Amino acid sequence: MRENGAIIWIPPDHPLIANIGRLLERYIRKEFRDIYEVELALFEFVLEYERFAHETAYPSDAREKLLAEARARIIAKPRQAINVETLAAYYGLTRSHFSHFFKTHTGMTPAHYIAEVRAKEAAQMLLESDLPLKDVAAAWGFADVPHFCKVFRRFQYMSPGGYRQALGWRPGAHPDRRSQ
Question: Do residues 163 and 152 make contact, with C-beta atoms less than 8 angstroms apart?
Fold first, then answer.
């Protein structure tokens, strides 16, 4: 209410309106068999309302734009360990303000997102090259192989070497070298 006022406009074709209509219709016609059906219907209503509130507070376009911009900055200089301060400076914000801004719009911390992007890009590099782990780690700005392995495991749920094996990687078999 603080942000939107006491009245909330909901488009007539929104699923929340249909949910409210079904709930009222079933109540008026006394179609609920027991309190558990009432509870389930109310839970479905609250869930749909939460979805509506989330969509209103965090429009997906703004979220996706912010994530795309951050990803582009991270990928632009892979060898540099891009940090939250670097991204904050791009937006002209302090680290603290940017962290709150980012978390509010995306639901995750900027540090988590930076690590996730770097781990995913490193995973792609593991499959596309014969480079040893230390070179892949250096290419994506990780301090050393143990740090790389720790971060990689957090996002891929396995070690970098295990990842290569699980996805059928064989030394010398990546696409760039098959044609040579």
Answer: yes
106-142: per-residue pLDDT in tens? 889 999 999 999 999 999 999 898 899 999 999 998 9
Q: Please report the domains of the chain, with CATH numbers, ordered by start residue.
A: 15-57 (no CATH), 61-166 (1.10.10.60)
- ∠ CA 67-100-112 to the nearest 5 degrees? 50
Q: Determine phi and psi for 42, rounding to 5 degrees.
A: -70, -40
Q: Which residues contact 141 (CB under 8 A, 6 or more apart)?
A: 78, 79, 80, 81, 82, 118
> Which among 46, 12, 42 is positioned nearest to 27, based on CA atoms?
42
- Give tens-digit pLDDT for 65-92: 899 999 999 999 888 778 899 999 988 9
Task: Give the 3-state DSSP-derived string for 165-178, with helices as H, strands as E and coil as C.
Answer: HHCCCCCCCCHHHH
What sign results for the dihedral spanned by CA atoms 39, 40, 42, 46?
positive
| Overall residue count recorded for the chain in this entry | 180
pTM above 0.90, yes or no: no
Contacts of 126 (CB under 8 A, 6+ apart): 136, 160, 163, 164, 169
Contact 115, 154 (CB under 8 A): yes
